[in-house]
Amino acid sequence: MPCYRCGARQTDPDRGPSPWRRGVRADRQVLICPGCQRGRDWARELDHCTTCGATMLVCRLGEVECRACGQVRAVERAPETPVSPSDSPGLSEEVAAALSRLLGSDPTP
Known about the structure:
Layout lengths: L20 E5 L2 E5 L1 H4 L19 E4 L2 E4 L5 E3 L16 H13 L6
Antiparallel strand pairs: 1-2, 3-4, 4-5
Protein backbone atom coordinates (compact mmCIF):
# COMPACT_ATOMS: atom_id res chain seq x y z
CA MET A 1 0.00 0.00 0.00
CA PRO A 2 1.52 3.36 -0.97
CA CYS A 3 1.60 6.56 1.11
CA TYR A 4 -1.78 8.23 0.76
CA ARG A 5 -0.20 11.68 0.36
CA CYS A 6 2.68 11.20 -2.09
CA GLY A 7 2.23 7.66 -3.43
CA ALA A 8 5.65 6.39 -2.28
CA ARG A 9 5.74 2.64 -1.83
CA GLN A 10 6.62 1.14 1.54
CA THR A 11 9.87 -0.77 1.84
CA ASP A 12 11.03 -3.04 4.63
CA PRO A 13 13.23 -1.31 7.22
CA ASP A 14 16.87 -2.42 7.53
CA ARG A 15 16.46 -2.99 11.27
CA GLY A 16 13.94 -2.18 13.92
CA PRO A 17 10.40 -0.92 13.56
CA SER A 18 9.12 0.65 10.38
CA PRO A 19 9.25 4.46 10.24
CA TRP A 20 5.93 4.44 8.35
CA ARG A 21 2.77 5.29 10.30
CA ARG A 22 -0.72 3.87 9.93
CA GLY A 23 -3.96 5.71 10.23
CA VAL A 24 -7.54 5.84 9.04
CA ARG A 25 -8.78 8.50 6.65
CA ALA A 26 -12.37 8.60 5.40
CA ASP A 27 -12.88 5.16 6.97
CA ARG A 28 -10.01 3.62 4.98
CA GLN A 29 -6.69 2.35 6.31
CA VAL A 30 -3.79 4.48 5.03
CA LEU A 31 -0.01 4.64 5.40
CA ILE A 32 2.06 7.79 5.89
CA CYS A 33 5.68 7.69 4.69
CA PRO A 34 8.51 9.20 6.75
CA GLY A 35 8.91 12.07 4.25
CA CYS A 36 5.27 13.15 4.57
CA GLN A 37 5.51 12.95 8.36
CA ARG A 38 8.22 15.63 8.46
CA GLY A 39 7.27 19.28 8.81
CA ARG A 40 3.51 18.78 8.62
CA ASP A 41 0.71 18.17 11.04
CA TRP A 42 -0.37 15.10 9.07
CA ALA A 43 -2.40 13.73 12.00
CA ARG A 44 -5.00 16.47 11.38
CA GLU A 45 -5.82 14.81 8.06
CA LEU A 46 -6.64 11.48 9.74
CA ASP A 47 -9.91 10.36 11.28
CA HIS A 48 -10.15 10.75 15.05
CA CYS A 49 -11.86 8.55 17.62
CA THR A 50 -15.27 9.98 18.52
CA THR A 51 -14.77 8.91 22.14
CA CYS A 52 -11.21 9.93 23.05
CA GLY A 53 -10.02 11.96 20.02
CA ALA A 54 -6.99 9.71 19.30
CA THR A 55 -5.80 8.98 15.76
CA MET A 56 -4.60 5.47 16.63
CA LEU A 57 -7.34 3.83 14.57
CA VAL A 58 -7.39 0.61 12.55
CA CYS A 59 -9.95 -0.25 9.91
CA ARG A 60 -10.92 -3.87 9.33
CA LEU A 61 -13.91 -5.88 8.16
CA GLY A 62 -16.33 -2.99 8.03
CA GLU A 63 -15.43 -1.46 11.36
CA VAL A 64 -12.99 1.05 12.82
CA GLU A 65 -11.35 0.38 16.19
CA CYS A 66 -9.50 2.85 18.38
CA ARG A 67 -6.33 1.35 19.78
CA ALA A 68 -6.21 3.99 22.51
CA CYS A 69 -9.62 3.41 24.16
CA GLY A 70 -10.98 0.30 22.41
CA GLN A 71 -14.10 1.96 20.97
CA VAL A 72 -15.40 0.13 17.88
CA ARG A 73 -17.77 1.62 15.33
CA ALA A 74 -19.15 0.52 12.00
CA VAL A 75 -17.68 2.01 8.84
CA GLU A 76 -19.92 4.93 7.90
CA ARG A 77 -19.80 4.31 4.17
CA ALA A 78 -19.05 1.45 1.86
CA PRO A 79 -15.31 1.05 1.22
CA GLU A 80 -14.14 2.17 -2.18
CA THR A 81 -13.06 -0.34 -4.78
CA PRO A 82 -9.43 -1.31 -4.21
CA VAL A 83 -6.90 0.02 -6.68
CA SER A 84 -6.01 -2.60 -9.24
CA PRO A 85 -2.36 -3.10 -10.19
CA SER A 86 -3.05 -1.67 -13.64
CA ASP A 87 -4.10 1.63 -11.98
CA SER A 88 -0.72 1.98 -10.23
CA PRO A 89 1.85 3.51 -12.59
CA GLY A 90 5.23 1.83 -12.41
CA LEU A 91 4.05 -1.18 -10.41
CA SER A 92 4.82 -3.68 -13.16
CA GLU A 93 8.34 -2.24 -13.48
CA GLU A 94 8.84 -2.49 -9.70
CA VAL A 95 7.68 -6.12 -9.71
CA ALA A 96 9.96 -6.95 -12.64
CA ALA A 97 12.94 -5.35 -10.87
CA ALA A 98 12.16 -7.23 -7.64
CA LEU A 99 11.93 -10.54 -9.51
CA SER A 100 15.19 -9.78 -11.25
CA ARG A 101 16.90 -9.13 -7.92
CA LEU A 102 15.37 -12.24 -6.37
CA LEU A 103 16.00 -14.61 -9.27
CA GLY A 104 19.20 -13.02 -10.53
CA SER A 105 17.95 -12.98 -14.09
CA ASP A 106 16.72 -10.53 -16.69
CA PRO A 107 12.88 -10.62 -16.62
CA THR A 108 12.53 -9.22 -20.14
CA PRO A 109 11.79 -11.81 -22.89
